[in-house]
């Protein structure tokens, strides 16, 4: 079952699309926000929203206030965090432990706020370790400072940080072969787009099972 909820925040209305766990009470809520350049229609977010509910996990796809308002540019990181904090009670009200997550900028928000909000864990999709071509401008401190179990799912060809660039730490990492920042794979690659999405859903599903 899918429902949509509007949540007032100090930055305007946010929107949560709920994909309820199927066939049993939810054991977890996985809350996933979008990046700075797109919305909840991203292929990885949609794939997880379809694959996790049959496994007893409710998925909440979160549209931040700036996106709901139709603005094209995301606000500063501090403001993104404020919006996430304000909508967090609506996520926690569902009852089960909440895994905070998102893709790209949404992953950064989840990492920066996880400990203070009491997240069970963090799911970081396409974590932007650095701006393209600028590895010296690392954001590794955000990832390493999450303070809760963390899974990074990263495309092998992501210009914002390839898997081998990530520092050692307590986080786990799933590599998506040939994937770019949006997990798209070239047509000439020996894997299909469906194969890439299966790596994501399988890796995330297995990791969530281990959080029991």
TrEMBL record:
<feature type="domain" description="KANL3/Tex30 alpha/beta hydrolase-like">
    <location>
        <begin position="29"/>
        <end position="199"/>
    </location>
</feature>
<dbReference type="InterPro" id="IPR026555">
    <property type="entry name" value="NSL3/Tex30"/>
</dbReference>
<dbReference type="InterPro" id="IPR046879">
    <property type="entry name" value="KANL3/Tex30_Abhydrolase"/>
</dbReference>
<dbReference type="Pfam" id="PF20408">
    <property type="entry name" value="Abhydrolase_11"/>
</dbReference>
<dbReference type="InterPro" id="IPR029058">
    <property type="entry name" value="AB_hydrolase_fold"/>
</dbReference>
<keyword id="KW-0378">Hydrolase</keyword>
<protein>
    <submittedName>
        <fullName>Alpha/beta family hydrolase</fullName>
    </submittedName>
</protein>
<dbReference type="GO" id="GO:0016787">
    <property type="term" value="F:hydrolase activity"/>
</dbReference>
């Amino acid at each position: 079952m899918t429902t949509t909820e509007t949540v007032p925040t100090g930055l305007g209305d946010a929107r949560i699309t709920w994909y309820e766990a199927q066939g049993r009470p939810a054991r977890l809520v996985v809350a996933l926000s979008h990046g700075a350049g797109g919305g909840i229609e991203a292929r990885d977010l949609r794939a997880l929203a379809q694959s996790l509910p049959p496994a007893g996990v409710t998925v909440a796809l979160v549209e931040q206030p700036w996106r709901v308002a139709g603005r094209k540019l995301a606000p500063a990181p501090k403001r993104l965090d404020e919006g996430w904090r304000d909508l967090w009670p609506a996520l926690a009200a569902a009852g089960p432990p909440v895994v905070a997550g998102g893709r790209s900028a949404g992953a950064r928000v989840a990492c920066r706020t996880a400990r203070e909000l009491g997240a069970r864990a963090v799911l970081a999709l396409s974590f932007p370790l650095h701006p393209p071509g600028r590895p010296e401008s690392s954001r590794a401190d955000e990832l390493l400072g999450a303070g809760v179990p963390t899974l990074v799912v990263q495309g092998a060809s992501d210009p914002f940080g390839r898997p081998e660039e990530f520092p050692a730490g307590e986080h786990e990492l799933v590599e998506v072969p040939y994937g770019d920042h949006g997990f798209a794979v070239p047509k000439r690659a020996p894997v299909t787009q469906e194969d890439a999405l299966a790596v994501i859903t399988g890796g995330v599903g297995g990791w969530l099972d281990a959080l029991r």
